[in-house]
Design goal:
Layout: E1 2-10, H1 18-35, E2 39-47, H2 52-61, H3 66-77, E3 80-88, E4 91-92, H4 94-102, E5 112-118, H5 127-138, E6 142-143, E7 148-150, H6 159-177, H7 194-198
Parallel strand pairs: 1-2, 1-3, 3-5, 5-6, 5-7
Antiparallel strand pairs: 3-4
Helix pairs in contact: 1-6, 2-4
């Protein structure tokens, strides 16, 4: 069986964190999508908070400590990347940015990336397009069309819609990994009956 390696970088600050929860669900969806194609997936979870001191030392000295070097190599050698950050001041967190600051600027060139972010309210969802996409475009990565933002409500009443976005993003990542044109979901494929709309 063919095997694919997926690096999962999550920059949540607490344990547990909603960023880690989203990262786990994205990784599981990608594994399921690959499994459906007869491909085994190995997901390597990288909690950036565990390497905060090493990241600071790397920035100050220009050299990564041994443990951080191993983590950076995991990202460089992975077939694809899932990157999830909490939203701070309408952007990615400083810890998230620090990780990609020390990564070799050619490490993600041509690599498929699934972008994710978490935040308190839906109004921060544009962080995906206005902060994360420019960063990964600079790194010459290949972000898939569907990014996944999870607000607090997505872990409750919005869980079904979140699962749909996760499944779509996973499908696109695997398609990009295999140089296919991912199928875009048609929002009019299963329209709500007019009677249901009238009844609220």
């Amino acid at each position: 069986m063919t095997e694919r390696s997926i690096a999962v970088v999550t920059a949540g600050l607490t344990t547990p964190s909603s960023s880690r929860l989203l990262a786990d669900q994205l990784a599981a969806a990608v594994r399921d999508e690959l499994s459906g194609r007869g491909i085994e997936a190995r997901a390597e979870i990288i909690e950036v908070r565990d390497h905060a001191h090493d990241l600071t030392n790397n920035l100050l000295t220009g050299f990564p400590p041994a443990q951080l070097r191993k983590v950076l190599e995991t990202v460089e050698q992975a077939d694809a990347l899932i990157a999830v950050t909490p939203t701070f001041s309408a952007s990615y967190s400083g810890l998230f940015k620090m990780f990609f600051d020390v990564l070799d600027d050619k490490a993600l060139a041509g690599k498929p990336v699934l972008l994710g972010a978490t935040g308190g309210t839906e109004r921060h969802s544009l962080v995906l397009d206005f902060a994360l996409r420019p960063l990964f475009a600079y790194l010459k990565a290949l972000p898939v069309a569907t990014g996944v933002y999870a607000a607090s409500t997505d872990w409750g009443t919005g869980a079904a819609k979140l699962r749909t976005r996760i499944a779509q993003a996973a499908t696109e990542l695997v398609a990009t990994l295999h140089h296919e044109t991912p199928r875009q979901a048609d929002p009019y494929e299963n329209p709500t009956p007019f009677e249901d709309l009238l009844n609220g």
